[in-house]
């Protein structure tokens, strides 16, 4: 499921983009979920990094597309941002927010399909983000999705995967900041878990893939339970 957000104060263009997305979904046999916003405030007021691709109109009153993109980047460094504009001069500074591309109004379907297809390719590449772990005579490239949890012991990070355990020097706090956009959360001060691998959540522990039963601190319990329910809801819909 590709999660899309469209932000445009012009209902006509909201509807046109929705029609293009629906047509692309049929033409390419992909599943797309679209959420529309009539202005930037609607998107960022309760923003969560759940969208794969975000279409942003640049010329909106009160809060323009560039300002919205800057707010998005504070919590989501990886969403693919595509600006919608009447003139290219407003999109030339897109590098400031790592925008992927821009589309000129009016948007015809051929132009849209080419650029949207390229955006999907970039999105899928981002999903394969990984971490390089040093081994004795080489390094191992571990995809974030493969990590079940990370434990810190004596300044060493122990990275647990289905294939085995790897370790590297590092800070769990810094690793947490890096992995938050990929549905990781700390269940106590020693463990950073991947919500993708949660099998069961008890009142004071979390059962993960590989039969790993980790303690959950009382201070973190509500945050972890809420994050898991949000993740579960996103995956279902």
What does this protein look like?
The chain has about 240 residues and is an alpha/beta fold. It has two domains: about 1-125, Rossmann fold (3-Layer(aba) Sandwich), CATH 3.40.50; about 130-235, Beta Barrel (OB fold (Dihydrolipoamide Acetyltransferase, E2P)), CATH 2.40.50.1020. Helix content is about 35%, strand content about 30%. It is built from six helices and 15 strands. It has helices spanning about 10-30, 40-45, 65-75, 110-125, 170-180, 220-235; strands spanning about 1-5, 30-35, 55, 80-85, 100-105, 130-135, 140-145, 145-155, 155-160, 165-170, 185-190, 190-195, 200, 205-210, 210-215. The strands form four sheets. A five-stranded parallel β-sheet has the order 2-1-3-4-5, sandwiched between helices. Strands 10-9-8-12-11 form a five-stranded antiparallel β-sheet. Strand 14 and strand 15 form a beta hairpin. The mean pLDDT is about 90.
Features:
237 residues; alpha/beta; Rossmann fold; OB fold (Dihydrolipoamide Acetyltransferase, E2P); 2 domains; 5-stranded parallel beta sheet; 5-stranded antiparallel beta sheet; 32% strand; elongated
Topology at a glance:
Layout: E1 2-7, H1 11-28, E2 32-37, H2 40-44, E3 53-57, H3 65-75, E4 80-85, E5 101-104, H4 109-126, E6 130-134, E7 139-143, E8 147-153, E9 156-161, E10 165-169, H5 172-179, E11 184-188, E12 191-194, E13 198-201, E14 205-208, E15 212-215, H6 218-236
Parallel strand pairs: 1-2, 1-3, 3-4, 4-5
Antiparallel strand pairs: 6-7, 8-9, 8-12, 9-10, 11-12, 13-14, 14-15
